[in-house]
């Protein structure tokens, strides 16, 4: 676990302690919700994938004003795919500018309050605490057991661990009185931008382009499949005639470089070649994405790119891809899943056998199925590998 991962775990412990103490002090009489609000604030700090899952509900609606409180690392994605949103961006909590930016955002909400707030965090308490102090707007959110959030919420939804998180997000919007916009769709491709990117990166050529994403967010690195297995998979795909690229954010370049070098000649290191806004163009060029349980999986799925998702600490039934050509591989060990909102997504596992149980030959077989089929295994039949 790197320094950033340790910091995230420390912040989660701090949030839990703050919620336990402050929620009973700040909870008051329920605030009534407007029948048909036309000015709403959505709070979701972490996760590009979460914003991709919410994108259909963030689509424009005539006369509706939508605001979003999120971290600045999502800025490029929001500006590209959700340009109609009024975003309030916060720097990372460890950065020097975090507290001034937070104070400014809360002051703006105090001066110009929304009619309703959708707290799309599923276990954090501090965002709801801060927003409740800043604005008189009623809060709608998940009453996640063990996370002390319930008394803060003016309309609370029961937590259902068997329900896909996209369905959970949709239920929050419905509870807030914000139905889906007519004709709202997932993210859209931009063929012109894709063509320009392909020319710039030299991605045109014979054979299907398969992208491998060996990284994940710093929250619990145990979600990552072994880099050596990604390299072995890349070699096997190359032997089968595919063009293979290794993707990752700029901060993941050491990992993408190591996988590409281990995979051998012809495998492209694409780490850091696009930002969060351009990632959809890169994914849109692919015939297939193979990825850990992380944001690009949901982005590719929203773009209708076939996906092979590798799961272990999280269950694919809650976080997996849902497209008709999506395959989720999940070993379904007795200890899986160990990441749970009810436990603040904290896991003590230091030996993720659930990920090492995913064999290269099984992942390769899933890739072959996805590449040759127009209707691969749906999530509801997620492949449980032999133990």
Name of the top-level CATH class of the largest domain: Alpha Beta
Shape: globular
Please report the number of helical segments: 14
User: What is the strand tally?
Assistant: 13
Q: How are helices and strands ordered from N to C?
A: HEHEHEHEHEEHHEHEHEHEHEHEHHE
Description:
The protein has 387 residues and is an alpha/beta fold. 37% of the residues lie in helices and 15% in strands. It is built from 14 helices and 13 strands. β10, α11 (295-302) and β11 form a beta-alpha-beta unit. The longest helix has 24 residues, at 3-26. The protein is globular. Mean pLDDT is 90; it is low at 375-387.
Which tags fit this structure?
387 residues; Rossmann fold; 6-stranded parallel β-sheet; 14 helices; globular
Note the topology.
Blueprint: H1 3-26, E1 39-43, H2 48-54, E2 65-71, H3 75-81, E3 86-90, H4 98-111, E4 116-119, H5 126-134, E5 139-143, E6 155-158, H6 165-175, H7 191-201, E7 209-213, H8 227-239, E8 243-246, H9 253-263, E9 268-269, H10 279-284, E10 288-292, H11 295-302, E11 307-311, H12 316-319, E12 326-330, H13 353-356, H14 360-372, E13 383-384
Parallel strand pairs: 1-2, 1-4, 2-3, 4-5, 5-6, 7-8, 7-10, 8-9, 10-11, 11-12, 12-13
Quick summary:
The chain is of the alpha/beta class and 387 residues long.
């Amino acid at each position: 676990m790197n320094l950033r991962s340790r910091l995230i775990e420390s912040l989660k412990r701090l949030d839990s302690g703050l919620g336990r103490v402050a929620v009973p002090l700040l909870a008051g009489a329920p605030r009534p919700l407007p029948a048909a609000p036309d000015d709403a604030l959505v709070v979701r700090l972490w996760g590009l994938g979460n914003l991709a899952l919410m994108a259909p509900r963030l689509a424009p609606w005539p006369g509706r004003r939508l605001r979003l409180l999120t971290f600045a690392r999502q800025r490029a994605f929001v500006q590209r795919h959700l340009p109609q949103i009024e975003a309030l961006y916060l720097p990372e909590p460890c950065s020097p500018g975090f507290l001034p930016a937070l104070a400014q955002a809360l002051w703006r909400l105090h001066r110009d309050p929304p009619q309703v707030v959708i707290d799309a965090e599923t276990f954090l308490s501090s965002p709801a605490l801060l927003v409740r102090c800043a604005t008189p707007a009623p809060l709608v959110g998940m009453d996640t057991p063990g996370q002390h959030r319930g008394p803060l919420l003016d309309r609370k939804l029961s937590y259902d661990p068997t329900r896909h998180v996209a369905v959970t997000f949709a239920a929050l919007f419905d509870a807030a009185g914000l139905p889906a916009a007519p004709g709202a769709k997932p993210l859209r491709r931009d063929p012109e931008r894709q063509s320009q990117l392909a020319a710039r990166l030299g991605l045109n050529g014979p054979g299907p382009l398969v992208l491998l994403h060996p990284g994940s967010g710093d929250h619990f690195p145990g979600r990552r499949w072994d880099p050596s297995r990604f390299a072995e998979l890349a070699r096997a795909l190359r032997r089968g005639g595919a063009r293979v690229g290794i993707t990752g954010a700029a901060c993941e370049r050491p990992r993408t470089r190591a996988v590409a070098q281990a995979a051998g000649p012809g495998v492209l290191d694409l780490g850091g070649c696009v930002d969060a806004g351009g990632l959809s163009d890169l994914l849109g060029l692919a015939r297939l994405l193979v990825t850990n349980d992380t944001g690009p999986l949901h982005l590719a799925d929203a773009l209708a790119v076939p996906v092979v998702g590798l799961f272990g600490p999280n269950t694919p039934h809650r976080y997996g891809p849902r497209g008709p050509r999506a395959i989720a591989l999940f070993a379904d060990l007795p200890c899986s899943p160990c990441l749970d909102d009810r436990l603040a997504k904290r896991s003590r596992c230091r030996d993720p056998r659930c990920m090492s149980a995913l064999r290269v030959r099984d992942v390769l077989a899933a890739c072959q199925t996805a590449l040759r089929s127009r209707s691969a295994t749906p999530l509801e039949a997620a492949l449980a590998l032999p133990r």
